[in-house]
Amino acid sequence: MTERQYNRLLAFWRKTPRREALGKWAVKLLPPVFFCVYGAELLILFWRDGITRGLLGAVLAPALALLSSNILRRLINRPRPYARYAIRPLIDKSTRGRSFPSNHTSSAFVLALTAFRLSAALGAVMLLLACLTGLSRISAGLHWPSDVAAGAALGICFGLLGLILF
Predict the structure, then answer these.
(1) Of 13, 59, 110, 161, which has the highest C-beta tally within 10 A?
(2) pLDDT band at residue 38 under the 50/70/90 scheme
(3) In whole angstroms, what is the distance from residue 8 CA to residue 79 CA?
(4) The whole model's pTM is what?
């Protein structure tokens, strides 16, 4: 995206106080939703089945996705849009570099796929929220579209691997 495109996106969110609050809400509150659902999922899996391969997969897939994402971020160390362009992100953020891939998006997708262990409906809702998480990271000026695409791909790969192997 160009600087002009980011400024247009941010101007859209900042047009009214209500819209800006909605944009900030999406960026700040979607990640905790995933971790709350994930924590509940782990408790349900443990309570229902005990320590099984399914529970192991539900723990290992997100851990490996996060580890892989962090390794890539350190190796690539790509600057964030607000560090490259004269834009002010939707939320206060001063982190420099480590934009590629998006950890939030990667985590959202792997946790969404993990939710399919409990229910297809829950997994589908979480996948929709994962997409919104990625879009919110771009529209807030925190990540490049390719950061989010790479994070989604990483999360999907590890999520599917966890479902297939465990």
Answers:
(1) 110
(2) very high
(3) 20
(4) 0.92
pLDDT > 80? residue 44: yes
> Which of 12, 10, 150, 8 lies closest to 93, judged by CA?
10
Q: SS in 3 state form for the chain?
A: CCHHHHHHHHHHHHCCHHHHHHHHHHHHHHHHHHHHHHHHHHHHHHHHHCCCHHHHHHHHHHHHHHHHHHHHHHHHCCCCHHHHCCCCCCCCCCCCCCCCCCHHHHHHHHHHHHHCCCCHHHHHHHHHHHHHHHHHHHHCCCCCHHHHHHHHHHHHHHHHHHHHHC
Task: Measure the CA angle with vertex 23, ends 21 and 29; round to 5°.
Answer: 90
- Tell me the two tokens of residue 165: 């192997």
Residue 161: count of CB within 10 angstroms of its CB: 17
Which residues, in sequence order, are CB contacts of 113 under 8 Å at separation 6+? Answer: 61, 123, 127, 155, 156, 159, 160, 162, 163
In the chain, the amino acid numbered 147 is: D
Average pLDDT of the segment spanning 65-83: 95
